[in-house]
Amino acid sequence: MSGSSYEELKERGFIAQVSDEAAVRRKLDQEKTTFYVGFDSTASSLHAGSLVPIMAMIHLRRAGHKTIALIGGGTTMVGDPSGKSELRQMIDEETIRSYGRDICIQLDRFLRFDEPGALSLDNAEWLRPLNYIEFLRDIGRHFSVNRMLAAEAYKLRLEKGLSFIEFNYQLLQAYDYLVLFRTRHCTLQMGGDDQWGNILAGVDLIRRVEGAAVEALTFPLLTTASGAKMGKTAQGAVWLDAARFSPYDYFQYWVNIDDRDVGRFLRLFTLLPLDEIRRLEALCGGEINEAKHILAFEATKLAHGEPAAEDARAGAAAAFGGSGNKDIESMPTTIIARARLEAGISPAELFTEVGLTPSRGEAKRLIAQGGLYVNDARLDAVDRLLTLRDIGPDGILLKSGKKKIHRVIAE
Fold first, then answer.
1. Among candidates 83, 109, 119, 98, which has minimal Cα distance to 41?
2. Are 251 and 119 contained in the same domain?
3. Are 376 and 399 a contacting pair, CB within 8 Å?
4. In this structure, are 157 and 15 located in the same domain?
5. 163 in any annotated domain
6. pLDDT value, residue 326
7. Do the domain assignments include residue 226?
8. What CATH number is attached to the domain comprising 149?
């Protein structure tokens, strides 16, 4: 990152709020700063919505700052109420540890913990051994209940009920910041904009306990131009785990974004220079597809590696106008028993099974509207069965609309 690190983050769209803009700008432009972002272990995989903090971490790491990815092995046991209308499901300790290991492996692909400048820690290391009475006396006394209840994260939950265990979450996150300040000289915490109150609580705690000034920066909570939550599809989350969401499907997710999102997503989710992004977002008409394919390739390369990105691009070319057996084999593929085709399979059943439609009801609706295809032929009847006669040289190619495709092989 050349020039002003702060200005580049701002121009790329990473900054929602900062505690003190002049101080954060100084830290990022004139100093070598240690900063951290937390990732609670609530699932075995992160999803595309997690990419905003990850990409910001990459940019700052490239500018020479030190990044700490904090796995929330301790805080996950409590549950963050921020942005949630209901109590989070409690997860057992072994599952939390397993999720944390999986998330750390994913973050390593982006941040390279084996290289200087990036570190992974787990807050279970210092939160689990805490003595509760001592914690209340040393840390809890610095928190105002009135101020906590005024925070947006708690106000939303008060309407439906806020559990006492969740009420402790802000104290624990603030304590994380204090521990990292003391042990790693960390002076900047970053997170999603729904974390603003929790991060400021840490800033205030360090000021009260250590008499030191540290800073906060939050990222915008993204929605697509259509209003959908970033990283969600009709079939569910866009996982970063290739086993849960294939590199091909990941590539297609980015290719299929709304034209209005292209420039914004190129800024946020690729490392392309801003001058190149300005050129790409100026494309219009059919040329915008060039920008979408570059976005898809760059995003897939970061998440899954360049070979996987190349295969996904080849598979897309085969599915939508290209040729070649290797390209066909790059497509997402499901193997089914040959006997099922001998008996005949409902298209609604198979399209839902392979993930092209979220339900059989939706599949039937799309068939009625002419939106589902088998081997490039539009399905024209809900009661039409798929059989051995539908197997072509490359298996059975199922398409939902013009952009989502899946190959089925019978064995």
1. 98
2. no
3. yes
4. yes
5. yes
6. 47
7. no
8. 3.40.50.620
pTM score, two decimals? 0.79
* Domain containing residue 386: CATH number: 3.10.290.10
Angstrom distance (rounded) from CA 96 to CA 101: 9
Query: Which pLDDT value is given to residue 70?
Result: 98
The answer to whether residue 227 is domain-embedded is no
> CATH number, domain at 304?
1.10.240.10
**Parallel, antiparallel, or unpaired: how do β-strands 232-233 and 236-237 relate?**
antiparallel
Supply angle C-alpha 62, 63, 68, rounded to 5: 70
Which pLDDT score, from 0 to 100, does residue 324 have? 46
Residues of the domain holding 200 = 5-219
Q: Which residues of the chain have pLDDT under 70?
A: 1-2, 81-88, 153, 156-157, 233-235, 319-330, 393, 402-403
**Do 195 and 92 share a domain, yes or no?**
yes
In whole angstroms, how far apart are CA 99 and each of 44, 54, 73, 89, 94?
4, 17, 9, 14, 9
For 253-278, give the DSSP string.
HHHTS-GGGHHHHHHHH----HHHHH
Q: Are strands 377-378 and 232-233 parallel, antiparallel or unpaired?
A: unpaired
Where helices occur in 112-168 by DSSP H, the ranges are 124-127, 132-138, 145-150, 152-158, 164-167
| 3-state SS assignment for residue 395 | strand
Condensed to tens digits (0 to 9), the pLDDT of residues 7-66 reads 999 999 999 999 999 999 999 999 999 999 999 999 999 999 899 999 999 999 999 999
Token pair recorded at residue 290? 């060039």
